[in-house]
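= Tokenised fold =
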Amino acid sequence: MGSVLRRRDFNLQALSLCATGLWPVALHARAANTLLVIGDSLSAEYGIARGSGWVALLTAQLAKDKPQWEVVNASISGDTTAGGLARLPALLEQHNPQLVVIELGGNDALRGFSLKMTESNLTRMVLACRKAKAGVLLIGMQVPPNYGADYAQAFSQLFKTISQQQRLPLVPFLLKGVADAADATALFQADRIHPKAEAHPQILANVWPVLKKLL
């Protein structure tokens, strides 16, 4: 009976301390900040073991260095900027992220979509994130030279244009040090489009210096 009374007294004291704001801070659960990654196969671990992609490596790094952040990887292989734009409102509502990393556009180029449409879709995604009070990091992509020098330059430039117009931080080229490595073929899967697992630490190294300033 005495133990029941002691527990009741403790619970009453706890409620009183919570009501007055004097409950020890250490007993409060720390709210997590959510980082949402919306991308395509380069972020969805296509063709490699789960947990070896750059987003998984980022999750592990944040768990060690920035434990108040959690990562939601909403990347889908084959996704385009149109697909990302369509999926984004529900993702923003569901996860209420503080920061969104947009890694899309490569499949637009592979499918021959117009650059104007790609730029418009990415810009609309940025504006939707801002309306939801989320910061944005834009990830740039490049296409191989066999697409033609003019197209390749224009495609690369559209990410820079959005970054400048919307005043966004930009990672200029996600695959820097991978696609332009001395022996690039050794870092890609047989399709020569998707990097092997051993290339993903370099991909994270491209993203992290820009991303960490936003956390």
